[in-house]
Write a structure and sequence with these properties.
heterodimer, A: 520 residues, alpha/beta, Rossmann fold, 49% helix, elongated, B: 267 residues, four-stranded parallel beta sheet, 8 strands
Amino acid sequence: MSSPAHPTGPVASAPAPGGDHLLEPPLPYRMAPRLARATKDIQLQQFVATATRLKDTKRIASFEATFGDRLGAVRDLAASIKQHTLDHLDHYLEQFIDNAQRAGAIVHYAADAAEARNICLRIARDTNSTLCVKSKSMVTEEIRLLPALEAAGVKTVETDLGEFILQLDGDAPSHIVTPMIHKDRTAVARAFVRELGAPYTEDPAQLTGIAREHLRGLYRRADLGITGANFLVASTGSVVVCTNEGNAGFCISGTRTHIVVAGIEKLIPGPEHLAVLLKLLARSSTAQPLTVYTTLITGPRKQHDPDGPDQGGVHIILLDNGRTDLLRRGGPGGAREILRCIRCGACLNACPVFRKAGGGHAYGAVYSGPIGAILTPSLKGLHNYPDLPHASSLCGACGDACPVCIDIPAHLIRLRAEMTGLGLPRGMRARKAVIALWTFLLKHPRLYRLAAATQRTILRALADDGPGAPDPMADRRWLSALPGPAAAWTQHRDFPTPPAADFRSWWTAHERARHGGRDS
Amino acid sequence: MKVALLITCLTENFFPRAGVAAVKVLEHLGCEVHFPRDQTCCGQPMFNSGHHAHARDLAERTVRIFAPWEHVVTPSASCAAMVREHYPALLADDPALRAAAESLAHRTHEFASFLTRVLNFDPRAHGLRWDGAATYHPACHLRALAREGAPDATPALLRSIDGLRYTPLDRADQCCGFGGLFAVTYPDLSGAMARDKADAVRATGANALVCNDAGCAMNITGACRRAGRGEAPRTLSLAEVLAEALGLMPEPRASVGDENGSEAPQP
């Protein structure tokens, strides 16, 4: 789908060097360095905030206008379609494979990213392909397909406008749906001058025209087309691809050979379920009733079709890459539920942390934002992404936005709990000890009251009240700098002291006045 | 009606006036209020940070401590959500405890919701008066409670008070960035979110910020003070607004000191 054009704004942040590195950082990935850069980059935050807020507001309005108070029922239906398919995935996989083969497609199964890449490379080699056009696909990012093809001598071009620009810039997508949410049009203009020799223009229509002109020529010459899949329809063996630019259609119709790479969780039982999911996908992503193009691929070109891949030229690669591990954890609240995700990006647009993190790069993986924070550690190992489940205020906006009712905050908490059973990274071990001590105090009311009194005394002694007028609220005082790890609080906020008088003293006096000293 | 106050640790220690106000309003409305003295913390910080064995222990003791009362009322939205949403699952390993947790979940109410849904509180019948300009930050956990069918009653209550000029916050449902330990583990993210909220508060021009969660209140007021170089709107709970509007509690004046002083022995 298309990328947002930022209406105004000076020069965007410099292109991040090495797009690959952004999505595949050294493991374990720690968020702090990228977060530190992003939280200082006000312009980046504004780009992301403007685009995500707009999308979020439009999504809510479009749902309200279309579904009104039936929205809950529609989301439940969509969730149950996806959940049912996952609960019987073996059945639907078999059905899909049979039907896709009957329609003339060649179906491959790839256990991991390397196997999926190798299958693609083998197909490219067997068909003597040297130029590949591909449409936007998260799963091909997940398996790092593009660099592998390029390394094997197959020039590969991203045809989604946003991804095309990122490819020119050596940058990586920062959003599931709107991949260049972190850039503005001046960055696009400069990339086109530098890489395509185009005249400098910031006019979106002209910029789109330049990209279109360039891409049309490539479509005609390409031997190989690659797309992902938004849905795989089991009862027909069809692959469904949604775009707003029609580029997937060109990737399919203009090439002799076509490869679809799809995660096994993309299955749905039949075309009737598309009716529900397509509406939710488009509205959740971009507040459209449907995406501009919904392309269905059912096997290669038929006898009277004017175009499309040759007989034997349609390959569907079903990718596991960690998904069956999640599938095994079914049951209420189990990790299987995460696989319902239809990659609409609504949770990213709703998330205040995603905005402040300056978009997806801070998440160190292809899938970012709230869904990435639960999907990435689930697919690639919690020990490899120990920070992601913690970088959330658990406000719940993501879960509320999810069209297939994935309880993202509950999964964040579940992953945090799983992490306490693992060897914890530095920083988290200390926290574990503090929490154990804290709990001990809370289980012993006398110690708790003693600790509370001590805390009151210490905080009040440290209070500096900062500049300005005295606080009108009771006799509260304030600290502008806390010591030790608590200094993290006072980096950005003052910290209140407890008032001098505590609740329990008041209650004792109150009780005495009321009943002559009866305690509850 | 017998009501036990679940004051919660942050409110007890940092916003005790909210607890005092809740007691006064509930008594004014005819409730017999109890304060079980062994209560400490509902276990939310442990639960949210993934330390579920600790959270379970604290849930168990809270369930036992509050077993005797017909209704449990708390001025803290997130603690109400903790008890209602998470206790039954946390204590699922013991059928008797699970049943007790489910019972407590049903008996536990956030203050505003208790007033409107259980006491059928009609603000017009009470001649409420509170002079000033106020805005309101809905704690994110109220969303969870609203999903269960208990929509947030606070804005309507605030609007029903004579003299109170209510201005809604821009993007009111945006998280303030507190998030418990999140505030100190990701201070830059949390601080940036808190600054947005402080900006929204300032834009209303209100001199009072109403907030029914001690965590959010601490975070937003702290951010307002930092942004305003010590100047910040007064932060108070709905219970305090109502107690003042009912004439049960004086409105504290700047630099006057502790308004509870006449009643509470100094430590």
